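User: Structure with 4'-deoxy-4'-aminopyridoxal-5'-phosphate, tokens only please.
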Amino acid sequence: MHLSQRITNVTGGGSDGWDLFNRARAMIARGIAVTELTIGEHDTPTHPSILEAMHTAALGGHTGYAAVPGTDELRATVAARVQAQTGIATTAANVMITPGGQAALFASHTAVCDAADVALYIDPYYATYPGTIRGVGAVPRAVPAHAANAFQPRAEDIDAAAAGAVSLLVNSPNNPTGVVYGADTLAGIAGVCQRHDLWLISDEVYDTQVWEGSHLSPRALPDMADRTLVVGSMSKSFAMTGSRCGWIVGPETAIDHLITLATHTTYGVPGYIQDATVFALARGDALERQVAAPFRRRRAIAQDILARQNSVALIPAQGAMYLMLDIRATGLTGEAFAEALLDTHHIAVMPGESFGAAAAGHVRVAMTIEDGAFASALAALCDFAEARAGQTA
Ligand code: PMP
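Assistant:
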């Protein structure tokens, strides 16, 4: 039977970028001890107090259909948090709760793209972005952010790609680069959106993981609130990846339509998960800092190790749970480097190429294993790179 182009074309016919990851998982299944520095999954579980709140809510009966837009309490909690962080007036009517950030990305593109519309995104990108855009029937168009510009996107590059586009998807703090967009970058992005009448979809799921500078939400820039949909999530900030709870913050009319869409797709998020989310957010930033602390620590460990060698260059690691390493001095592609490192040292890192052409010659390291093992793996990676660079020189 025929399957729709829309679903069979989600990956665009190419690889989904997860070959290395799948190979590492297959090795583990065969009993080989692989050090996994691939995916953005915390090495600590959800805090027991959040699980207790979930348990209490479920036993208390919040197990039926929950309000499709999100509970009033959670929408108000998210709105208050966003308003406090950005200074921009935000009410519950500006918020819809979603089953995680990924569903929010899909819904946001559904809200702003018609079939065959062009949707822009920045390369390097989180692996699902082009597929999300194809999945709603739109056409993804990548705008490169250059390694030479520390992966900060430039307004002129977005301008050059913007003809005929309806939206731009950005992500700061960034996965995969670990870069946090500065005020100049964001002002440039806002300018392009206004000049070309683009919606801005701002993926801010790493907003609590900022190691240098501060997180700025482009929705807070002048005249941006009416054209910006912010994607948020509990996954990274509270180590709640499996609970699937996120949100979209945007103009009321867009949120109204998104709620109608949710009625026809997800039908909301379980009530006990939403209650636990209210509980977690009400704890202030203490818990978020606790969840972010291991990554902050490991970033410092990595900076120390990387400062002692010359074959691997660290892209400024300003936020998120990843490091982007420039391994071009080895003469290898990111893919060849990651394959060889997996074969010879049983260490799995993601090839930069998995995240787009702009990240070629790089690898992404997730800081998601215990400090000692992380330090050993990074030291081994550097030794491997040094040996390869020596052969090239
Ligand atoms: N955006 C980015 C940049 C991500 O890295 C991820 C998860 N890795 C997501 C969105 C989606 O996260 P979730 O659906 O778990 O909220």
